[in-house]
Amino acid sequence: MPSSITRYLDLVDEQREAIFPLPSIFARLFRDRPYKADIDDVYKRPGFPMKMGWTSRPKSRRSGR
Q1: Are the beta carbons of 50 and 43 closer than 8 angstroms?
Q2: Cα separations (Å) of 23 from 3, 13, 33, 53, 59?
Protein backbone atom coordinates (compact mmCIF):
# COMPACT_ATOMS: atom_id res chain seq x y z
CA MET A 1 0.00 0.00 0.00
CA PRO A 2 1.65 3.27 -1.09
CA SER A 3 1.89 6.04 1.43
CA SER A 4 -0.16 9.20 1.13
CA ILE A 5 2.96 11.16 0.18
CA THR A 6 3.73 8.77 -2.68
CA ARG A 7 0.14 9.00 -3.92
CA TYR A 8 0.27 12.78 -3.72
CA LEU A 9 3.55 13.00 -5.64
CA ASP A 10 2.19 10.66 -8.31
CA LEU A 11 -0.88 12.86 -8.62
CA VAL A 12 1.27 15.97 -8.99
CA ASP A 13 3.33 14.25 -11.71
CA GLU A 14 0.17 13.27 -13.60
CA GLN A 15 -1.20 16.80 -13.39
CA ARG A 16 2.11 18.30 -14.51
CA GLU A 17 2.29 15.99 -17.52
CA ALA A 18 -1.31 16.75 -18.47
CA ILE A 19 -0.88 20.53 -18.45
CA PHE A 20 2.92 20.81 -19.28
CA PRO A 21 2.70 21.47 -23.11
CA LEU A 22 0.71 24.70 -22.79
CA PRO A 23 2.82 26.39 -20.09
CA SER A 24 6.07 25.46 -21.86
CA ILE A 25 4.94 27.20 -25.04
CA PHE A 26 3.85 30.24 -23.05
CA ALA A 27 7.10 30.26 -21.04
CA ARG A 28 9.26 30.36 -24.19
CA LEU A 29 7.76 33.75 -25.03
CA PHE A 30 9.01 35.26 -21.78
CA ARG A 31 12.22 33.28 -21.25
CA ASP A 32 14.82 35.95 -22.05
CA ARG A 33 13.00 39.04 -20.84
CA PRO A 34 14.69 41.01 -18.06
CA TYR A 35 12.78 41.73 -14.90
CA LYS A 36 11.38 45.26 -14.56
CA ALA A 37 11.88 45.28 -10.81
CA ASP A 38 14.44 47.27 -8.90
CA ILE A 39 15.81 45.56 -5.84
CA ASP A 40 16.17 47.90 -2.90
CA ASP A 41 19.59 47.76 -1.23
CA VAL A 42 18.70 47.97 2.45
CA TYR A 43 22.31 48.59 3.44
CA LYS A 44 22.28 51.92 1.60
CA ARG A 45 19.31 53.20 3.59
CA PRO A 46 20.36 55.99 5.97
CA GLY A 47 18.46 54.55 8.96
CA PHE A 48 19.52 50.90 8.57
CA PRO A 49 21.25 49.61 11.73
CA MET A 50 24.71 48.48 10.61
CA LYS A 51 25.95 47.35 14.02
CA MET A 52 23.34 44.70 14.86
CA GLY A 53 25.80 41.84 15.39
CA TRP A 54 26.66 42.78 18.95
CA THR A 55 23.05 42.34 20.09
CA SER A 56 22.69 38.70 19.03
CA ARG A 57 24.21 35.79 20.91
CA PRO A 58 26.96 33.81 19.17
CA LYS A 59 26.30 30.29 18.02
CA SER A 60 27.15 27.49 20.40
CA ARG A 61 30.68 26.16 19.99
CA ARG A 62 29.99 22.88 21.80
CA SER A 63 30.85 19.72 19.93
CA GLY A 64 28.20 17.09 19.28
CA ARG A 65 28.97 15.07 22.41
Answers
A1: yes
A2: 30, 15, 16, 45, 45
Which contacts (CB < 8 Å, 24+ apart) does range 50-55 have?
none
Give mean pLDDT in consecutive 10-residue pieces for the chain, a chain of 65 residues.
87 86 79 79 79 66 60
**pTM of model > 0.85:** no
DSSP annotation string for the chain: ---HHHHHHHHHHHHHHHHSHHHHHHHHHTTTPPP--PPP-GGGSTT--S--GGGSPPPP-----
Amino acid letter for position 21: P
